[in-house]
Amino acid sequence: MGMISEFKDFISKGNAMDLAVGVIIGAAFGAIVNSLVSDVITPALLNPALKAAQVENLAELKTEGGILYGKFLAAVISFLVIAFVIFIMVKAINSMKKKEEPAAPAAPAGPSQEELLTQIRDLLKK
């Protein structure tokens, strides 16, 4: 029974639950970003740009020796587009958050250490 109770404690702790929620939300966010890139940005922006450059299928570009540099270029472009989309989304989410109210002014500072020592010295003289 000791192992089962330890397992219950592990599962019920906030860390495991927070991790599970983070993974699930991360997967859902990844699906949103992938859909935005593949269904909106790629057809609207990248495909016309590739057609203008007379490159119909970037992934099929290769050298005479068979090195598929087109796949590498496609992966780099995909990474840059996804990174930019995530940047824009995070920036938008951060701008939607409430602006933090400025902290209340701190209480007026008391006398400095030098002033306290001077007061103590004067009291000792009396």
What's the structural blueprint in terms of helices and strands?
Elements: H1 2-12, H2 14-52, H3 69-96, H4 113-125
Could you explain the architecture of this structure?
The chain is mostly helical. It has one domain (2-97): Orthogonal Bundle (Non-ribosomal Peptide Synthetase Peptidyl Carrier Protein, Chain A). Helix content is 72%, strand content 0%. The protein has helices at 2-12, 14-52, 69-96, 113-125. Helix 2 packs across helix 3 (69-96). It is elongated and about 100 Å long.
Summary tags:
126 residues; mainly alpha; 4 helices; Non-ribosomal Peptide Synthetase Peptidyl Carrier Protein, Chain A
Radius of gyration: 30 Å
Mean pLDDT: 79
Beta-strand residue fraction? under 5%
First-to-last CA distance = 74 Å
CATH hierarchy: architecture: Orthogonal Bundle
Shape: elongated
Under CATH at level 1, the class stands as Mainly Alpha
Structure summary, number of beta strands: 0
As for the CATH topology, it is Non-ribosomal Peptide Synthetase Peptidyl Carrier Protein, Chain A
Main beta sheet: strand number and arrangement?
A: none
Number of helices: 4
SSE run: HHHH
Show unreliable segments: none
Number of domains: 1
Derived from helix and strand composition plus strand pairing, the structural class reads mainly alpha
Query: Helical content, roughly?
Result: over 70%
